[in-house]
Amino acid sequence: MTLEEFTNEFVSARSQLKSYILRITASIEDTEDIVQDAFIKASLKLDTFRAESTVKTWIFTIASNIAKDNLRAKKRWPEDVTDICREKALANPDYFPEISNIMQTSTQAAFEIKEHITFCLTCISKSLPLEQQLCLLLKEIHDFKVSEIAAILQTNESMIKYYLHASRAKMVHIYEGRCALINKEGTCHQCSELNGIFNPKQNFEVEKNKIEFAKKANDPDRELLLDLRFRIMKEIDPFNSSGSDLQLHHIQHNRDVMENYLEKNDQ
């Protein structure tokens, strides 16, 4: 494979790769660095590519290894990350002026319920063990096969199936106890709260019921509801959507809050 051929393949995969790395790291800066490092490392190792997998799988393997090295020593986020970050946002006098400025100056500030669902899933998935989070994103969002994920994470298919089963079960459990959209006893009402801030003239219940996820909220099959969340996440590129500027701001805010929170709780 020539460098030109590889570069074309990398450009084709770059958008998905950036979304994947952002959802692992919750950092725009780290994402840009890891994607660039992956391109450089792969370019220098072209002679080692044996076409035993697709070029895209090989690229994701290299990028995943860099991301794992970056994250291995860091603590996973707690399940109540949204509560912790919400409290910090409310206590920060600069937070809402920043939001207001984005909404007034950006054409990508249409942060509605779908944007929140994918933002929420990004943050909550960081409470999973790292390998489980990677498996979940690779399978449910980026459509890799189990055999391809095993190659990317350099393990066997049995472990990948275990990681997928465990991660899905954990996510269903977290959402069942927290999400007010699917359980009236849920503790998190941030979808409606944020909608009230960003779309004050919009009827939240009307908008909510336009998406299939909300229509199925009373379905007892919680696995189905998780799949519907994944479908929404699949449709939204966090770097290029109608609400990407706000979503990126929220993700970076939560990353900063959690780094400080985990550091303080480590002392």
Please, could you describe this protein's structure?
With 267 residues, the chain is mainly α. The protein folds into 2 domains: 1-73, RNA polymerase sigma factor, region 2, helix turn helix motif (Rna Polymerase Sigma Factor, Chain: A), CATH 1.10.1740.10; 76-264, no CATH class. Helix content is 70%, strand content 0%. It is built from 14 helices and no strands. Helix 1 (3-25) packs antiparallel against helix 2 and helix 7 (130-141) packs across helix 9. The protein is globular and about 55 Å long. It starts with a helix and ends with a helix.
Count of extended strands: 0
- Average pLDDT for all residues: 92
Q: Which parts are unreliable, with pLDDT below 50 for 5 consecutive residues or more?
A: none
Counted by DSSP, the helix tally is: 14
- Helix proportion: over 70%
Largest pleated sheet: none
How many structural domains in the coordinates? 2
Strand content: under 5%
Structural class: mainly alpha
Determine Rg (CA atoms, Å): 19 Å
**Terminal CA distance:** 50 Å
Q: What is the string of helix and strand elements?
A: HHHHHHHHHHHHHH
Overall geometry comes to: globular
Short description:
With 267 residues, this protein is mainly alpha-helical.
Question: How would you summarize the topology of this molecule?
Answer:
Blueprint lengths: L2 H23 L2 H17 L10 H17 L9 H11 L3 H11 L7 H13 L4 H12 L4 H8 L3 H22 L11 H9 L5 H5 L3 H4 L6 H14 L8 H21 L3
Helix pairs in contact: 1-2, 1-3, 2-3, 3-8, 4-14, 6-13, 6-14, 7-9, 8-9, 9-13
